[in-house]
Amino acid sequence: MVCLCAEISFSQVNSQSLNGAWKFEAGDGEQVLVFQDGYFSQTSYNESKKEFNYTRGGKVVIMPGKLQVKFEFNSADKDEVGTSAEVPVILSAGKLVTHFDGVKQEWKKIDDGAKNLAGCWRINGRWDGKEMHPIKEAPRKTLKLLSATRFQWFAINTETKEFFGTGGGTYTLNDGKYVENIDFFSRDNSRVGAKLSFDAEVYGDIWHHSGLSSKNDPIKETWIRYKAN
Question: Which of 206, 214, 29, 28 is nearest to 119 (CA)?
Fold first, then answer.
């Protein structure tokens, strides 16, 4: 089981100071931590070796000096799904200090999650080649969590605690062109290093996403902002 815990003093930490993406360089690769729209994900991988280690995340309430989290997925330990934890945190010299598995970690901030498509999104519509089909909110869902520069999608079931897959990396958004650079992919590491370009338009809380997949299949989807809390 992957444990999230901390043994550090409290500080004035709030959503504005934690929102966005954080990175920790580890001996076996890197870890990325993203906070956005009341949701978080923590992912461990090695891009150079194309290795995916694990990911987990869920709903988070950021309070002064601590996080209140409720796990909605864990690729390594499904028994953690549905459990809650209270995690003390501290900001020190511009770094986020936590203890994962009893080991002190200092996370460097990558971005502040304040632009582009930053947010938590749930897929709510998919084109089948002829028409769009709505996807209603249910325990079985696909979410995409984005900071200002990082993206990650994950397919999960919060009722059965199943984890179906994830992928992520960096992205850019310029003049309606959304470009993904894949750093990790749980189901097919041959996709690591791929660069995918899509058309992107946002109308209110709906993101219209279209283009070609990594298998060169046409994609046309809509995503809606996911309210975690």
Answer: 206
| pLDDT score, position 203 | 94
Q: What is the pLDDT of residue 97?
A: 85
Provide the pLDDT confidence category of residue 12 given band limits of 50, 70 and 90.
Answer: low
**Which of 58, 89, 111 is a domain's end point?**
111
d(CA 215, CA 95): 39
CATH number at 185 reads 2.40.128.490
| Strand 177-185 versus strand 162-174 pairing type | antiparallel
127 and 45, same domain (yes or no): no
Is the domain of 139 the same as that of 216?
yes
For residue 214, with 0-12 CB atoms within 10 Å meaning exposed, 13-18 middle and 19 or more buried, which class applies?
middle
Q: Specify the DSSP class assigned to residue 25.
A: E
The answer on 107 and 126 residing in a single domain is no
Q: Are 180 and 187 in contact (CB under 8 A)?
A: no
Q: Report which of 14, 17, 8 is spatially closest to residue 61, judged by C-alpha positions.
A: 14
The first and second tokens of residue 200, run together, are: 């992107």
pLDDT surpassing 50 at residue 11: no
Residue 35 is part of which domain span? Answer: 4-111
Residues 219 and 131 both lie in one domain: yes
- Are 178 and 214 part of one and the same domain? yes
* Average pLDDT rounded to a whole number, residues 195-212: 95
pTM (whole model) above 0.70: yes
The pLDDT of residue 229: 66
Q: Categorize the per-residue pLDDT at 14 as very low, low, confident or very high, splitting at 50, 70 and 90.
A: low
Q: What are phi and psi of 194, to 5 degrees?
A: -70, 150
